[in-house]
Amino acid sequence: MKNNKKETAEKAAKDEKREPEKKEEKQTVPPDESKDCNPSEQEEKQSCPEKEAGEDKLATLQAKVEELEDQLLRKAAEFDNYRRRTLKEKEDISEMVKLQVVTALLPTLDNLERALAAKQESNDFTKGVEMVYNQLWESFQKLGVTEIEALEKEFDPNVHNAVSQVQDEAFGDNVVCQIFQKGYQMSGRVIRPVMVAVANP
After folding, report:
1. Can you point out the beta strands (E) in 36-149?
2. CATH number, domain at 182?
3. Are residues 78 and 135 in the same domain?
4. Residues 81 and 130 in one domain
5. Would you call 90 helix, strand, or coil by DSSP?
6. How many Å apart are CA 51 and CA 56, to the nearest integer?
7. Is residue 58 one of the residues assigned to a domain?
8. pTM of the prediction?
9. What are the pLDDT digits (tens) for 16-49?
10. Cα 106–111–112 angle (5° rounding)?
């Protein structure tokens, strides 16, 4: 009986020793590789698709900005061209109107010159005509009208209108020797050429 109790006690002691070993074996489970992975690497892997999507969106926005900037520059250039063209058209219209007005009043200027050239008995009348002539001529000058020089100048078909030719040794060849009607120009444009006689053409 004593031997049986002894054997039972030894067996129980052995079992108690084995239980901690089993517990230790249970604890030596292979570590989870996913848990041992560096958290920062996991975050980078998870954020990589989001980062790529953000970069694509940024590139799209940059392309859109460049497109809008190009459109803005084109519109600005078109507007500048329109402004210059409009300004040029206004200047041309203004010059045309002045030209028409001056052309219409030139015969009046011619008549006033003829009246001054004629001998009048009344000095008061002559002074009146002279005042009107001077006032009209001053208005022409303000508009940029100038008289074309012709007498004793070499004939220039651009500003002279030859209606007569003479042989005269007192003048050189192809020189204007007489003026029949004065000519005028405005801003470099001929309003009316000078009507002349040319010597020794």
Report:
1. 145-147
2. 2.30.22.10
3. yes
4. yes
5. helix
6. 9
7. no
8. 0.58
9. 555 545 444 444 545 554 444 455 555 555 556 7
10. 95
DSSP structure string for 118-183: S--S-HHHHHHHHHHHHHHHHHHHHTTEEEPP-TTSBP-TTTEEEEEEE--TTS-TTEEEEEEE--
* Residue at 127: amino acid letter: K
- Rounded CA-CA distance 82/78 in Å is 6
Taking the alpha carbons at both ends of the chain, their separation in whole angstroms is: 170
Calpha distance 35→42 (Å, rounded): 10
**pLDDT tens readout for residues 60-111:** 888 889 889 999 999 999 999 989 999 989 888 988 899 999 999 999 999 9
pLDDT digits (tens, 9 = 90+) for 121-164: 678 888 888 999 999 999 999 999 999 999 999 999 999 999 99
